[in-house]
Structures are given as structure tokens and as C-alpha cells.
Write a structure and sequence with these properties.
The protein is mainly α. The protein contains ten helices and no strands. It has one domain: ABC transporter involved in vitamin B12 uptake, BtuC (Orthogonal Bundle). The N and C termini lie far apart (41 Å).
Amino acid sequence: MLEALSYDFVQNALMAGLLVSIASGIIGSLIVVNRMVFLAGGIAHTAYGGIGVAVFFGLPMFLGASLFAVLSALIIASITLKERERMDTFIGLMWAVGMALGVVLIDLTPGYQADFMSYLFGSILAVSSSDLWFMGGLLVVILFIMTFWYRDILAVSYDSEYANLRGINVPFFYTLILVLSALTVVVAIKVVGLILVIALLTIPVYIAEKLSNTLYVMMILSGIFSSIFTLIGLWFSYEYEIASGASIILVSAITLFLFLGLSRILGRIN
């Protein structure tokens, strides 16, 4: 694969994979500890409505999907802030409406032939320089927020009632987590697509959770594991000419099964 590094699109793919992997490791950890795994899939499919809007009006895909995803996150936050147990109901509703709207708008776009495979399973080799700036900017924002508000986000994630008693603005940080999750899902769609985005946000996190005692360490390990899976997946994708998104997830899944098997064997030995 070394000779392929001379191509700009391969360099962009590698950079995009690393940027999204680190962002996914951090935000995926928050999604897991806040029990919002279904949220990732819900926002991903809701964001398809934004893709449809972008296609219909000739806007950049990231712009349409991001605005739609953030709007969805704000709506979900306002509705579920005091009724988190009903989150699945609202996410399921927005999931269906977003997908339906996206399909209808794409069908109504004159002369447009939808590349559904790239939306469903990612198109990391088609990442542009502007996409990289968007991904890099999002990662900088995430790192900035986690650096300055880590303790507040930690408190809200694990015990919102305790956080509220400490005077932490729980609605603000709850909404912030949802918005960051929405934006991370949007950039992850470019790498692995709508169908596989949940796996990218949860498999590395699951392994990291078993190997860490704090949220901080969990985020770091998740980012590292996600980056490794992405690089190996891209290599397999290039060598065997298979879909990059699916390849990344298969590498992640195989590693997870090996990890679970090894943990079980070691547990019996100990």
C-alpha cells in the first residue's frame, strides 16, 4: 500500500480516517456511558433527510446533513431532557421521518442519480480537502470542550441529579453532548456510512471500557483502537478491492470477538 500513498485521495482517506476515529472514540464513549447507542443510529438515519435537502437545493452534503442532524439533536434534547426513558420513541420517529424525507427529496431532484451505496456504506476515498477541514475543525472543538468541561460532562453523564445539586447546568451539557454526537455521526457517515456508523461508535468503546477505570482513559483507548481498526481496514480495502467502510467494521468486529474469547480464556485460567 506504500505506493498508494503518493495519491492525494489515499492521503485524504487516511487523514479522514484518523480524524474521525479520534472524534468517534471520544464521543462514542459519551454515547455509551449516557446509554445513547440507539441515538447514533437514529441521528444517522435522520441526517439522511439533510442529505436529501442538500441534494435537492444543490448544497454541500456535510452542510445539509450537519444542520439536519443538529436540529434533530436539539429537538430530541428538548423533548427527552426530563423523560430520557422515552428517548427511543422519539428517536425512532425522527429516524423514519428523516429517511423518508431524504428519499423523497432525492427522487424529486431532476436528473440526479443517487449513489445510495456511498451513503449507506461510506465513501472515504472520495473525501475532499474541504471535508478534511470540517472533520479537523470538529475534532478541535471536541478536544477543546472536553479539556475545559471534562468534570462537568463527567458528572452529567454518570449522575445528572448529583450534577444538578452541584450547580452544573445539566440541560446545557446534556444538549451539548447530543449536538456533538450528531456532528460526529455526520462525519462518521463519510467513512463507514449510515448502516455501519453505530459499530464505529461502539465497538472500540466496548473494548476500551473493559480495559479502563475512568472515562478519560476510556476515551483515549477508544480513539487509539478506532484509529488502528480504520488503518487496518483501509489496508484490506485497498489490497482486496472491497468497500472501505465494511472492511473497517469487519476488522473491528473480528478484534472484538478475539478480545471476548481471550478474556473468557484468561478468566477461566485465573
